[in-house]
């Protein structure tokens, strides 16, 4: 994802460019590590949130595309065992809402391990895509392709950003090696248009059935979702980190 609301790091980074001569908006806040710990983390949480929100329209000088909505190529989910045996494919994915009413809290940074953790919250995030599904949900055959919209309400996201330091031109930089995202939505609704070749009666019944079992279906979606968005968030973060030295992003004083 927060993500979705999910890019706290990113923002952070964005906050402090310099060497490259790129000027960031003066509204971006830099947090000094000399602050008392509580204050520092509060500052980082807020500056991360502001930075993510400011990336809504993208950041040209960092080659970052708009994240409102956030575009993702495709997600493929193979047939799994259990009550949902469904091949699912999503293309032209747009994630709407990551920057809307975003909250970021509990930022923590372990400098030795190069590990940044935080929690974020969004009231509503829509995963809108072209879908193709084929298989069974609780013994019921389901098949179709068209437009889909999966909505997560009260979305809590845990972000775990693993990084490593390296040297370039005599300066220390960091790169994200792994961006772990964990989504915990309060509620999920799903909408698949054009199921069963557009048979509206069957299609409506199946949509109702799917929503009555949305927890089950979302469990199938969750891991590939998180993996995909983790990769996207890592890329956005790295677009900043490759351009800005570490001590410009996290200045000691
Ligand atoms: C997706 O569904 C949500 C919830 O119904 C709605 O608010 C949103 O506008 C929909 N988005 C699209 C593109 O249909």
UniProtKB/TrEMBL annotation:
Taxonomy, superkingdom: Eukaryota
Name of the featured protein: Protein takeout
Family note: Belongs to the TO family.
CC terms in the record's Gene Ontology section: extracellular space
Keywords assigned by UniProt, alphabetized: Biological rhythms, Signal
GO biological process, one term: circadian rhythm
Signal peptide residue numbers: 1-21
